[in-house]
Amino acid sequence: MSTLTEASALTSELAWAEPIGVEVIVGSVRPGRFGPVVADWFVRHAGARADLTVRTLDLADNPPDFAARIGAADAMVVVTPEYNHSYPGPLKSAIDDVGTEWRGKPVAFVSYGGLSGGLRAVEALRVVFAELHTVTVRETVSFHLAHQRFSADGEPIDAPAATNAATVLLDQLAWWGRALRAARARAPYGG
Description:
- By secondary structure, this protein is of the alpha/beta class.
- It has one domain: Rossmann fold, CATH 3.40.50.
- Helices cover about 45% and strands about 20% of the residues.
- A five-stranded parallel β-sheet has the order 2-1-3-4-5, with helices on both faces.
- Helix 2 (about 35-45) links the parallel strand 1 (about 20-25) and strand 2.
- The longest helix is centred in the C-terminal third of the chain and has 28 residues, at about 160-185.
- It is globular.
C-alpha cells in the first residue's frame, strides 16, 4: 500500500471514529414559543450519547456565528414548529443566509405542532435542504398536539416512544455524519 493510500485510509478511520459534532437548531423565535421545551429534551437525550457532541443553536439568540457553526458541524438537527402548513420565516432566512457550509452534511428534523405534529413543515424543509446539497435523514421525531405531550418538567408524557424515535433518528444521523465526514476528508464536496 502506498504512503498516500495509507494516509487516506488513516484519515477515513479517524473521521469515522471521532464523535459527530451536531448543532441542534431551534427554529422558532416567537414570544411564548414551545420550541425550547422540545429542543431541551432532545439535546438532553442526544447529549447522553458518547458518539455525539451536541450544541444548541437558538435562532432567538440571533447568533452572529450561525454560518461558522454550521460550517464546523458534522450534522444538524432542525427543531421546527409548523406555522400555516409550513416552517417559520426566520428559520428560512437563517437557512438561506448560509451557503456552502450546508453542503455534503446530514440534516435531521424534530417537529412539533397541532394535529400534524409539524410534519408539513418537515416536508417543505426537505425540499429546501435538497437544494442546499444536504442529505436529510429519513426518520423524524414528531410531537402531535405538542403542548399536551410534555409534562411540566419538560419530559415527554410518552417517554418510551419519544426516546425510541429519537434514538432511531440519532443512529441514522450519526451514520450519515460519519460517512459524509469521511467522504469530505477524502475529497471536498464539489456540488
